RNA sequence: GGCGCUUUCGUCUAGCGGCUAGGACACAUGCCUCUCACGCAUGGAACACGGGUUCGAUUCCCGUAGGCGCUACCA
């Protein structure tokens, strides 16, 4: 057969927020499509009217928009193979159900759910198939007149696929190789329900993939057991020669405990399982999302791509474009991957530290506002500049490149709080304070001249020196303080940091002092000396 | 229960008959340093088990055990 243009699809059900596993499936479809110059289709599978959740469709579209995964056609994207919402394709499915019925590949069944349950209770491991359909109420056991009368009388029915038993069905999977399943273990699946005039997943899926000219079906492993059924359906329709290739992806598992990652796990285990925050319209429950947690979309995509696939070398940091070049279905792993959210944070860290100053300022501005701080743009830029020295990448005195440990933008607050808020109390049991604030005789503030003034007194001496400084720039401070340090042999740095920061963190002390200004520095020092002398 | 998929460090994984079994996250230690970090260096840490095939199995085959999935008028 002729080489067809690659066309793949991502087809979620609008039953709630998009699960992170679904994001990965969509991502792989996207990578595969782009790599082959093909199309990615966005189809909504809303054949179960009872599970429809308003807002889910928009949520899914917004999620992919944020993640940078672009669709070529489908719901909200347009295209020539529409409509792309299955609930709008009723007439199409009806037509194909009739095709199967006319060809004697399917039959009508009137068994009610109650009757089926009764049978299941009566017969152990009951399965509606070639061995049992002869004792059920269907068009195979009823006369044509009876069937017509029942339908005319408004009786609800379903259409079932008539599976011939005893056949080994071959599924050629791009990831797993050849999988063979005997048709005898398959049941006569319901293809269509008269109650809502909609098909079930299986029928809709095959009809749509065929009509939309899908060439590759890349989906989760949970579909592998029903893949033979799908193969049989393609055959029944006479579409075997254009049947898409299958690739069943391994599942995403819970990081701890057993089972696959479910929608409920995330917030229970302390990490999001949804790309965006989701507000459940019924329960009002809020589930956290990666975007709101402070993740960068590139980091999420990069992390997810490597859960079940790798380029075959040691490269881990990749852009979407890199991945399009490197992606390879045959390099996908076959076994489920535990979701490692600690590594997700590391990826975000990597992406965050690559951000430019310009990207930091608005994020930082938001962090400050969230904490009730009104800062000028100049102040924000200055802190970002200062933090960049330490935060993003800088070269220290030894010529070593250094970086800052920030995994999320919100991490900035504890790291920058002291720029705007003076310490209000000091924990004398704090390791850093305990180590760097000593009384005379404790031996930690002995000066070169042999005197031991104690840290409080040393800070008082430093205070006196600072009060004489007129130019409070970094250079201005150095010009006065450095000689004093040299002369007395004082070691004021950590104690000074206690005064100004209240903890063992922050940028270079001269830089910090210059940012705070002389008055604030003096104020904080006096306050600290008083508090710590109590 | 039945059917299918799967099995390399704690986690994600490389490996496609012969390797001191490699990398990353996490962890530990050291270095750097006015602090915390960052960074750098070092370290501990794995082929589920039992049979085959082979001169030789982490690698191929078969069992066993574990994990996962499916078994709806849900997708």
Structure, briefly:
This protein is α/β, with parallel strands linked by helices and 534 residues long.
Can you offer a commentary on this structure?
The chain contains 21 helices and 17 strands. By secondary structure, the chain is of the alpha/beta class. The protein has four domains: 7-84 and 252-346, HUPs (Rossmann fold), CATH 3.40.50.620; 89-208, Glutamyl-tRNA Synthetase, domain 3 (Alpha-Beta Complex), CATH 3.90.800; 355-417, no CATH class; 431-533, Arc Repressor Mutant, subunit A. It has a four-stranded antiparallel β-sheet. A three-stranded parallel β-sheet has the order 1-2-3. Strand 13 and strand 14 (286-287) form a beta hairpin. Helix 10 crosses helix 12 (341-352), helix 17 packs antiparallel against helix 21 and helix 19 crosses helix 21 (518-533). Residues 388-404 have low confidence and may be disordered. It binds one RNA strand of 75 nucleotides through strand 7, strand 8, helix 6, strand 15 and helix 12.
Distance between the termini: 89 Å
- Strand order within the widest beta sheet: 4-5-8-9
Largest sheet: number of strands, sense, barrel closure? 4 strands, antiparallel
- Oligomeric form: single chain
The CATH topology of the largest domain is Rossmann fold
- Class per helix and strand makeup: alpha/beta
What's the number of domains?
4
CATH superfamily of the largest domain: HUPs
**Which shape, going by the Cα principal axes?**
elongated
What is the CATH top level name of the largest domain?
Alpha Beta
Number of distinct beta strands: 17
Q: Bin the strand percentage.
A: 5-15%
Low-confidence stretches: 388-404
CATH architecture of the largest domain: 3-Layer(aba) Sandwich
The radius of gyration is: 33 Å
Bin the helical content. Answer: 40-55%
Mean pLDDT: 88
Count of helical stretches: 21
